[in-house]
Each structure stands twice: as structure tokens, then as C-alpha cells.
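Bit of a strange request maybe. I'm writing a small parser for C-alpha cell strings and I need a real example to test against, not something I typed by hand. Could someone generate the C-alpha cells for this chain?
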Amino acid sequence: MTHVHWMVELEIKPGQEKALKTLVAEMVKDVQTNESGALDYEYHISQEGKCHLFERYVDGAAAIAHLNTFQRVFAAQFVEVFQPLRFVVYGSPGAEVREALAGFNPIYLQTVGGFRR
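Reply from user aminoacidic:
Good idea to test on real output. This should exercise your parser:
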């Protein structure tokens, strides 16, 4: 089994702080409730208005399921709140995941060492 994980660096658009809290709460609840293949789904915000979103999925199928739901339910609101700056994918996702992520113009980083417990 190959986990699929990525980090998205975002900028919070001016005046969207309240909408951010509502949207993030909705998205976290939806992913936690409906996506058993989501291992990690975390938003981290700096005082300067930057946000990192870390996501990790049990496999490519779980990542694709998440991306489909995101596109169908949350994408329009997401782009009103956030300006994507960088999308970094870690490891070796399969061709289907790479195709699904192509529109995000991700950077792919291959694992060269380390471990996960």
C-alpha cells in the first residue's frame, strides 16, 4: 500500500477570515465523516495570512475520492477564500492521481530516505 500525501501552501484572501473558519470547519467535518481513507487532513495558519494544508490518504483511490468530492462540493468556495501558492506532492503517486492533480500544477518530490511510524 502506498500512501498519497501532499501539502498545499495557500494565502488567505483579504476579508475572508470569517468565511475561512466556516469553510474549513465544513470541509474537515465532511472529510472526517465521509472519507475513511483520509489519514491526515490538517490546516495550519500563520499570523501573516498564510495557510498550509496537509493531506495524507491511505492510497490513490482514497485521494481520488477526496479530489472528486472537493471538486463537486467545495472548490468554488475554496477559491473565494484561498489563493493557492504552491502544491507539493510527496512520494510516488500513481498515474491516476497525477492526472487528477495536473490542474493544480504540483511539484513532485521523490522520497530518498527516512521512515514513518
